[in-house]
Amino acid sequence: MTFAPLRASLSGLAVAVPRVLGMVCVLMLAACTSKPVQPEKAKFEGVRTIALLDVREPSQHMIYNYISPLTALGVTGELLKEADLDFQREDFNTMLRGQNLLVGKLLTDRVAEYLTSMGYSVVRLPDTRGPNIESEWTDGWMTEGRPQFDPATLDVKADAVLDLRIVRSGYISTVGVNAYSPALSVEAVLYGRPSNQPIYHVRIAYGAQPFWGEKALVPASNSYKFGSYAKLMRQPEIAAEGLRAGANLVAGRVIQDFPWAYAANKKVVSKP
Q1: 19: buried, middle or exposed (CB in 10 Å: 19+, 13-18, 0-12)?
Q2: Cα(76)–Cα(83) distance, rounded to whole angstroms?
Q3: What is the pTM of this model?
Q4: What number of other Cβ atoms are within 10 A of residue 188's Cβ?
Q5: Residue by residue, what is the 3-state secondary structure of 31-77?
Q6: 212 closest CA partner among 4, 25, 28, 76
Q7: I want to staple 175 with a disulfide (CB 3.0 to 4.6 A). Which of 179, 222, 249, 254 is the partner?
């Protein structure tokens, strides 16, 4: 009599249960976040020049899959190996770095272009934020830590400061281990001057199903979806392009929620 199947099942459960519990906690925390600050005409009427900080590149791109406890009970062999992607993060990030993937720079460039098309003057600023504030929920595998940032410390002539941060970037399989989609989540906060208080706040998710607290889901093209981790790794150009496409789309969606009728040129312009 052998206990191999039992050991395999218990091993699968040991991998999945902490991951599932972690996901539940992340979702609960996101659900408790404050509601987005909605734009108001009075707050934007004097905004003509916006200081835009360069978006910080993610410390690493995440690779993740959702495994339910019931599925985990039957996980064995190669499937168990694919379910546990901890040891594969380095290979995944090396693959994307080889494609010269700079999601933060692309996001900054596109947002600057959209703001300029709306009639705003844009002042580009380097990333002078402090180090990311990490926690047990933002250890780099699921979300980026929030950078230390105080808009009052900026010496710039502007009516507002726009701070964009990448919350999450990478690929997630939402159906076991065989449905990987690009995932990009971006938070945008516009601080009015001289109060340095938020007058606009939104968080946008692209690709894989967003977590609670995120405003909208911007869908990804099926051409950027992969049936397994191995297939994803075999197509680095397409994998990187999936995240570049997300940066373009999210930039447009962030600016789409700006108060268009109150842009600096006092004209309603076409949305990106």
Answers
A1: buried
A2: 10
A3: 0.75
A4: 25
A5: HCCCCCCCCCHHHHCCCCEEEEECCCCCCCCEEEEECCHHHHCCCCH
A6: 28
A7: 179
* Distance from C-alpha of 173 to C-alpha of 238, rounded to nearest angstrom: 16
* DSSP H helical ranges for the chain: 4-31, 41-44, 69-72, 77-83, 89-97, 103-117, 229-234, 236-256
Distance CA 196, CA 117 (A): 25
**Residue 169 carries which side chain, given as an amino acid letter?**
S
Give the relative orientation of helices 236-256 and 89-97 as an angle to the nearest 10 degrees. Answer: 80
For the record, the structure tokens of 248 come out as 């373009």
DSSP designation for 151: G
**Of the candidates 129, 136, 133, 107, which has an alpha carbon nearest to the alpha carbon of residue 21?**
136
The number of helices, as runs of H, and strands, as runs of E, in the chain is 8, 9
- Omega of the bond leading into 194 within 30 degrees of 0 (cis): yes
User: Could you report the average pLDDT of every consecutive run of 10 residues in the chain (272 residues)?
Assistant: 43 46 42 44 77 93 68 49 60 93 96 91 94 57 72 94 93 82 92 90 82 70 92 96 96 76 40 42
pLDDT, position 41: 58
Q: Which of 49, 267, 45 minimizes the C-alpha distance to 162?
A: 49
